[in-house]
Amino acid sequence: MNWNTLSEKQPYVTRLLTNSMDKHRLAHAYLFKGNKGTGKKQIALHLTKGYFCKVRESSEPCGECPDCKRIDSGNHPDVHLIEPDGQSIKIEQIRKLQKEFSYLGLESKAKAYILEHADRMTNQAANSLLKFLEEPGQKTIALLLTENPQQLLDTIISRCQVLTFAPQSQGQLIDTLIKDEHPEHLVRIASALTNDQKEAVELLQDEWFVQARKNVLNLMEELVKRPQRALLVLQDYWYPHFKEKQQIEVGLDLLLIWYKDVFLTQLDEKQSIVFKDQEKLLSDQALKSSQNRVRDQMVLLLEAKRRLQANMNLQLLIEQLVLKLQEG
Description:
There is one protein chain. The protein contains 16 helices and 5 strands. It is α/β, with parallel strands linked by helices and 328 residues long. It has 2 domains: 3-164, 3-Layer(aba) Sandwich (Rossmann fold); 206-326, Zinc Finger, Delta Prime, domain 3, CATH 1.20.272. A 5-stranded parallel sheet has the order 2-3-4-1-5, sandwiched between helices. Helix 6 (123-134) links the parallel strand 3 and strand 4. Helix 1 (3-9) packs antiparallel against helix 2 (11-22), helix 11 packs across helix 13 and helix 13 (245-266) packs across helix 14.
């Protein structure tokens, strides 16, 4: 990993940070805000390596010196990573950090801390950190990472240089996952469900997800070719596999992606479809239905997702949905 590879995801952020390092103008505190999977922690760690590396060239850490290797292994004595203890970051964790920073650096005068999920601090912890940010040490750098900056105190945000991490595009995620030799037909589905690379990889490695896609395709084939058998498919394939609310929501999302693909096929925008290996079945359905009907079916799926959150019989919800999808 180096700044060039990191810039593929976050060109603006990496350019700003490397320029600041080259000019020796790093801020004492940064707030990295952005969705999961946008590289906040990777960039925070790489910046920290550059901050401590004594033999770096320009802004690029060497990766081989003791400082770089200790940061990579997570045991550098002057680099502290703070994560939520349970559901939150507690005041005891911030006090311990402050105590550590009251000592001189063991390797140099520099110290750094990375606060993951900074928005999860308790009120006491946030107020304690605020005082810490107001009186930074001479060679101290703070990196706060968050997906929910609106949960942070305005006074904390005002004391940080805020960098917004752009969400990873679906195309970038697809390219990355295919390069890692994941099957393309599964990659396209996973990347339609999440733009978080870690979550996408977890889906791709989950046999339940692979089978979920097959079951959705079984249902769609029956709805297109033999609609009178659709309820039998629910009994044989859907109900045994999609049991919990979260699983059913994934199933509904997959169905929604399918109907979007049908609509794109009708618009002759096949380059944008997700189920690329199912073009024949998509074309069959697109020819048998109007654009208005497909739009109505997508509305039905969105309504089913909404009703899923209510306290109702889950099998009844899916059965009613399939019957409505059959109509027309």
